[in-house]
Amino acid sequence: MQSSTLAIPEITKTPRHVAMIMDGNGRWANQRFLPRVAGHSKGLETVRTMVEECVNHGVEYLTLFAFSSENWRRPPDEVNFLMNLFFKALNKEVARLHANNIRLRVIGNLSGFTPEMQERIAIAEKLTANNTDLVLTIAANYGGRWDILQATQKAFAANPDVAIEDMNEEWLSPYLSMSYAPEPDLFIRTGGEQRVSNFLLWQLAYTEMYFTDTFWPDFDAIAFEKSLEWFQRRERRFGQTGLQILEKTIVRNA
Ligand code: IPE
Ligand code: IPE
Ligand code: MG
Predict the structure, then answer these.
(1) What angle, 0 to 180 degrees and rounded to 10, lies between the N-to-C axes of helices 115-127 and 76-99?
(2) Ligand 2 site, residue 71, Cβ cutoff 6 A
(3) Residue 153 CA to chain centroid, in angstroms?
(4) Catalytic annotation on 71?
(5) Within 100-190, where are the H helices?
(6) Is there an atom of ligand 1 within 6 Å of 25 CB?
(7) Alpha-carbon span 55 to 50, nearest angstrom
(8) Alpha-carbon torsion (248, 231, 137, 156), positive or negative
């Protein structure tokens, strides 16, 4: 993983990596006098659309927050529904992902899932492992704090004699769950809340944050394009001054 705090990443017009918090399913359903879970089912359609749109726009990595480590606090019926939906989606959608040259990865504390689910995940990841058009990452039973802690534990296990001064980013980052991807360029949260809710805490250090009131089931290709246009208007400085960025642009275009 290229680190935005160690080196300034290449700035591209289209984000290489988009990370999304798919929020607002329950309120979308409430608005229609439907049970909350109807919003989750509808939300799956938006997932399909976003996968297609990312491929169309040349995004290389799409990461979706599907279930947080804190979502277990929801009523058991809703948790069960979400687990079933995820399981069914894994069975049903993977062939299509594979046919479209999309690689699927799942990050999070997978030990929280049933053995059947863990097996489905492993099969899907293996099947799609050599696909190159898009890397679709689903964050499930994921928490940003869990990620940093599990990485620390793994880094220690791999190198128990590490000197304190060697416990740096390079030591830790290979063990973070998204070490295979560049850090997200664009973060999108639907549903109106402006918070990170324990998503990719480490990886969002220099990510552009886009918040929209649109509920996830209503988020569509046009709404996504709006976020991409917004992204293009950002000046990503990574700690430098605006003048330095301008100078670089002039040199590049000369
Ligand atoms: C996001 O929608 C989906 C998950 C957390 C799985 P919500 O279910 O949080 O919907 P709201 O925020 O209650 O509307
Ligand atoms: C974040 O949404 C988690 C997912 C979308 C999976 P939540 O709806 O759980 O977040 P909070 O509770 O409003 O912060
Ligand atoms: Mg929510």
Answers:
(1) 20
(2) yes
(3) 22
(4) yes
(5) 115-127, 144-158, 169-172
(6) yes
(7) 9
(8) positive
Q: Are 87 and 117 in contact (CB under 8 A)?
A: yes
Give residue 221 CA to ligand 3 midpoint distance, Å.
21
Is pLDDT of 1 > 80?
Answer: no
CB 176 within 8 A of CB 204: no
Question: How do residues 33-75 score in pLDDT, each as one tens digit?
Answer: 999 999 999 999 999 999 999 999 999 999 999 999 999 999 9
CB 19 within 8 A of CB 210: no
pTM: 0.97
Tokens (6 digits) for 7: 């080196």
Q: Which amino acid is at 175?
A: Y
**Number of neighbours of residue 235 by Cβ within 10 angstroms:** 11
CATH classification of 17-253, choosing from 3.40.50.1820, 3.30.530.20, 3.40.1180.10, 3.40.50.1380?
Answer: 3.40.1180.10
